[in-house]
Amino acid sequence: MAIKAENGRKNDPQRTQENILEVATEEFSTHGLAGGRVDAIAERTRTSKRMIYYYFGSKEGLYLAVLERSYRKIRTLEADLQLSNLEPEEALRVLISTTFDHDEAHPDFVRLVSIENIHHAAHMLRSEAIRDLNVSVIETIAGILERGVSQRVFTRQADPIDIHMMISAFCFFRVSNRYTFGSIFRRDLSEPTTIERHRTMIADAVIGYLKA
Amino acid sequence: MAIKAENGRKNDPQRTQENILEVATEEFSTHGLAGGRVDAIAERTRTSKRMIYYYFGSKEGLYLAVLERSYRKIRTLEADLQLSNLEPEEALRVLISTTFDHDEAHPDFVRLVSIENIHHAAHMLRSEAIRDLNVSVIETIAGILERGVSQRVFTRQADPIDIHMMISAFCFFRVSNRYTFGSIFRRDLSEPTTIERHRTMIADAVIGYLKA
DNA sequence: TAAAATGTACGAACTGGTACGTATGTCAAG
DNA sequence: CTTGACATACGTACCAGTTCGTACATTTTA
């Protein structure tokens, strides 16, 4: 048994799973669910394909885990904002900037959501975990709008979900459609000056809408 | 040769190609490029898989043809608008409504664009045809904005491409992210009352932004 | 010693693409 | 107006490579 190399394997389930998820996130967000290859993921992992099936059962199981992990990461980020002690308009600007910066910084997440939409959100529907996460955003927005209206800074009675959609739409689209948009209009949406301009723009538009 | 059935085959290249493209559009927009199956397309066609390769060379060739066909259809629609005799604000509202209604009526197109973005717009880059189409929209918007500013209805000097993006983002997102958004917030974005509200909302927001 | 974690090798089904053969249309020559 | 020859249009059956998933064996850990 002299051959038995000095590989010194250590069992570390958590690290193994996390490692798989990291690699899988990249694979799926780049190639989609059908386009992503389990073998390709396994190869770039510290471990083997066997482990993928050991922990996640199937390709779809892995994909779902990747999706959940991505959503969980945002929740943590969003929940840390302390907006109730800010003036309504300022609070909204901070929230918008946060969403904007998040999408800009996490194209992987944006792509996964796009992919999930192509599949009619079939996987998300099966996961209650994900659904619960975004509810808090709506509550936050609702609070800001109420304060704004009662303080007469906002004149329009708007639906919180609509406002959230307006914000998401702009922030998301910039990232999700970066390539086709950039290709058609020869404009690089990830240029610093463009990013700055757009960040202000979406905030101005939303607040302008609420004050109209 | 009494067996030789009454199939009465007619050679009709144009109809055959169009038929393939129709079916392929549905297949690719539903399952993506990697997820779409050539065999599945062939089955639902009046013709056979052989013909797909005869006319389009490869799966990717077929996909590109589908993409080009979708873009060509919009151009025709957009080009028919006569906006120069309308007041700037009214012209913009008409343009926004048209974009809104188009995306709402053509989820296939929206999905194909999403898919193309997942592939970094790699196929679109190889097709000059597509790029040329959307330039006219920007010229239209630029004209409206100029007239609006000189007539003092719009106070803000805005970039036409930015405005186009703002409009596209909202109209596109409503359709592209319909499923994840609907799943999280239990809201059906294709409900008539919701559609009406959103159509007005995006127009108000854009115009409000230009007047701020 | 048993359960959890991991590695290796392999198989069965799927899937893009093609080889081969047949039918249809066209057009010029008879 | 018929014939025949050639190009285009089409159908069937099949192949070869890929890809998800697993059987089996082994090591680590408690």
Explain what the structure shows.
The structure is a homodimer of 212-residue chains. By secondary structure, chain A is mainly α. Chain A has two domains: 11-57, Homeodomain-like (Arc Repressor Mutant, subunit A, Orthogonal Bundle), CATH 1.10.10; 67-211, Tetracycline Repressor, domain 2 (Orthogonal Bundle). The first copy, chain A, has helices at 13-35, 38-43, 49-56, 59-79, 88-105, 107-118, 122-125, 128-133, 135-150, 160-176, 178-185, 192-211. The first copy, chain A, is elongated. The model of chain A is unreliable at 1-7 (pLDDT under 50). At the A-B interface, helix 1, helix 6, helix 8, helix 10 and helix 11 of A face helix 1, helix 6, helix 8, helix 10 and helix 11 of B. The structure holds a DNA duplex (30 and 30 nucleotides).
Compact description:
The first copy, chain A, has helices at about 15-35, 40-45, 50-55, 60-80, 90-105, 105-120, 120-125, 130-135, 135-150, 160-175, 180-185, 190-210. By secondary structure, chain A is an all-alpha fold.
